[in-house]
Write a structure and sequence with these properties.
Protein name: SAM-dependent methyltransferase
Structural class: alpha/beta
Number of strands: 7
CATH class of the largest domain: Alpha Beta
Shape: elongated
Organism: Calderihabitans maritimus
GO molecular function: tRNA (adenine(22)-N1)-methyltransferase activity
Keywords: Coiled coil
Strand content: 15-25%
């Protein structure tokens, strides 16, 4: 069974033998892949929308995996019972939504050994939540697919040293290992900041002037990261 580069990278971070909860499973592609490849003995797949869940159920039945993949309707981690899974994947949602899901079910999160998170936006919000809630960032990965760079974060229970705002935004592990896609990711972030600055320049309000200084400083920091990465590659 073939899955996308993004899902393949997520699957590579799942520890063999894990009982996994796939939150927002959509078509259940990841659960089927994990079970068929004998990475997970069982998976519980949840989704808040009935239609994607029905499509996922059809895929599970077509692969004769009904006894090993449980499909459940509900928000976030709410369909799970404490201790039922040891690993949770949340992929394809915004960072704030992920944090809301995790914060809403502390009784589930306490029993987990691994969180594998792939935020579409606001990765810094996810990292900040992890740092302040007893999780350490053990691994990070970047995957480029269809002209989009996806961030994937693996977290485990433990102490995380405080992170600089740039580490929260770009990822402490990604920066430490100078990931090959980090230059492009940083360039994308810098382009976004410059776009915001252009809008602020056109505004005449006092609030815009205050924000302008903040974003100028952020642009400078991102430029310094690019210079550092350029020197490191020589």
């Amino acid at each position: 069974m073939k899955i996308s580069k993004r899902l393949t990278a997520i699957a590579s971070l799942v520890k063999p033998g894990s009982v996994l909860g796939d939150i927002g499973t959509d078509h259940a592609l990841l659960p089927v892949y994990l079970v068929k490849n004998q990475i997970c003995p069982r998976v519980i797949a949840t989704d808040v929308a009935p239609e994607p869940l029905k499509r996922g159920e059809q895929l599970v039945r077509s692969h004769n995996l009904v006894g090993r993949i449980s499909m459940r309707l509900g928000y976030g981690l709410k369909p799970l019972r404490p201790g039922e899974v040891d690993t949770v994947v949340i992929a394809g949602l915004g960072g704030k939504t992920m944090v809301d899901i995790l914060s809403a079910s502390p009784e589930i999160v306490r029993g987990l050994n691994r969180l594998i998170l792939q935020p579409m936006v606001a990765g810094e919000v996810v990292r900040k939540w992890l740092v302040t809630n007893g999780w350490k960032i053990a691994e990070e990965e970047l995957v480029k697919e269809d002209n989009h760079i996806y961030e994937i974060i693996l977290a485990e229970p433990g102490h995380q040293e405080p992170l600089h705002p740039l580490q929260l935004e770009l990822g402490p592990v990604l920066m430490a290992k100078k990931h090959p896609l980090l230059v492009e990711l940083t360039e994308n972030r810098l382009a976004e900041v410059r776009g915001i600055l252009e809008s602020l320049y056109r505004s005449k309000t006092r609030e815009a002037r205050q924000k302008e200084e903040q974003f100028r400083e952020r642009a400078k920091e991102l430029e310094e990261v690019l210079e550092w990465l350029s020197r490191a590659s020589k």
